[in-house]
Predict the structure.
Amino acid sequence: MFLAVFFVLTFLIGRLVYLMVFCSEYYGQKAENLHERERDIKAARGRILDANGTVLATNRSVCTISVIHSQISEPEAVISALVKELGMTEEEVRKRVEKVSAIERVRTNVDKETGDRIRAYGLDGVKVDEDYKRYYPYETMGSKVLGFTGADNQGILGLEVKYDEYMQGTNGKILTLTDARGIEIENAGETRLEPVNGYDLCISMDMNIQKYCEQAAGLEKRAYVYQTFCEYFAEAEEKAAQLTRQELERAGADCEVLKQNARGRLERAAQLIVGRVVER
């Protein structure tokens, strides 16, 4: 009996030494991961530059607004502030604020000024994180070549998707320590892993040449539209004149007077419509 107890105690002591000495780092990391909450820091997507270094695609700083249910101490104040600043309905905001989850995203792509105002409230459980939104300074110029990105800043078409893995970068993280209830531990601070921005992409396109080409194509298109409308209204005028003559034969009135009136109305309508098309 004594030997059995001795061997059991020896085994337990040996196991304890093994866990505390040889496996301490492994279990320490697991415990730390259990008490850490992660929030992403978006990496800035690489820019697209033309042959002269002109920026064709870049990023604008925006914010992502999130709430952590377990940390909210004044839910009504949080709801009121978010409704006021984000322009959302109270029902939408309340649904997100009262949802029991580790972290609930309320809205993305919020402009930086609004994000700063929300941060200034100093409300517990409300997180304002950095984010980026893709921005094209020349709007649609070269859009079929450049392509575009989605809401998550991931390439969808054109060069944006072809070189996505090089331009998207690596997101960083904000790590905060929490207790068993998920509430941040005071004075524990945050660990910040900085993001790595994506690579810039330099292409052979010349913005000035592209601009002239698109202007020339636009003029050609407008000329085609004008010609099409002229042909249409010429045909319409002919039909109107025929109809007028039929009416004149029955009424016995002056054919030329009504033809001139019809022609004048059609020409004014054609000028008005073509003018609006050209303006667009």
Remarks:
- Confidence is low (pLDDT under 50) at residues 276-280.
- The CA atoms of residues 114 and 120 lie 10 Å apart.
